Amino acid sequence: MDCTLTLLTDGTTPFFQVQNSGPEPLRIRAPALQQVSTTAPDAPAPAGASGTAAPVLASPLEVMLSGATGCSAYDISNRLQERGIHVTAMTVYTQAERATTPPRVFTSVHLHYRITAPQADREAVASVVDMSVHAHCSALGILKHTAQIAYTLDLTV
How far is residue 77 from each of residues 44, 46, 121, 138, measured CA to CA in Å? Predict the structure, then answer.
């Protein structure tokens, strides 16, 4: 079964959402990243050269942060699947701060995981998330050289 890892935003905070439409366990095999929007739903679109709405594109550092978020979500999904933990939904909200002077590297990154895993062992899920953030996710491993990495977990069982 394939899932979609979607980059969304509420106008200020980008986040990932994994959608699973069937009864099978949630599994991300090859994440399909889709940038849905980077502006508030009611904000007017900027005008393009031809008078049509110009596409809103992510900056290189937004892409980097999105990659780190997707890396962790992918890692968590696979490791929970390996442990036989049935996950039906996962959303990862990411917030970051950058240095005020060049190079404006990330100085802090906070990931908020919302995971729904009916009948899962809370400690097992928490352990997988912790290991992803602190040891397994390569992209977060790179960011931790300049940023403090923190996370919170909202688990629904």
Answer: 36, 37, 15, 15
Q: Largest Cα–Cα distance of the chain, in whole Å?
A: 55
The residue whose two tokens read 């390569």 is: 138
Instruction: Kindly state the tokens that stand for 21.
Output: 């439409």
The predicted pLDDT at position 27 comes to 47
Residues of the chain under the 70 pLDDT cut: 1-58
Q: What is the pTM of this model?
A: 0.70
Closest among 115, 94, 114, 110 to 13, alpha carbons compared: 94
Q: Which residue has the tokens 């599994």?
A: 27
The CA distance from 105 to 64, in Å, is 11
Tell me: the pLDDT tens digits for 132-156? 999 999 999 999 999 999 999 999 9
C-beta atoms surrounding 48 within 10 Å: 10
CA 59 and chain centroid, separation: 16
